[in-house]
What we know:
This protein has one domain. The protein has three helices and no strands.
Amino acid sequence: MTKHPLTPTLMQLEAVLDETADAIRTKQSIDDTAMVKAKGRALLSLSHLSGEISAERLSAGEQDAIRRIREKLATERGLLERRLEASQLVVKLIGEAMLAEEWDGTYAPEAVHPVHPSRQPPAARPVQT
């Protein structure tokens, strides 16, 4: 067993990652600021320890914890990307709905923002003479 505080720091980071992923998966309210601060503290601790620890001296348990953290970071990235995509879709739909509601046919909102096809003006018809 090593004499440095790497294991508790890895455990702290892993716990924060687990909490974040669980909250996203279960659609719970997330305090993004608190999560970022907690991850930042753990990563800062790791950066302070990085000068004291060589990869050759890591225990099997520490190497396993680092592998799990890498996997959890990749999982969290995917979850956060989906969360961002969903938020962007909601913003787009709200924007389209607002434009469609305000459109009275006198201007072309689709020139600035696309309008849902059901709200498009009828196609221009040739004038009969």
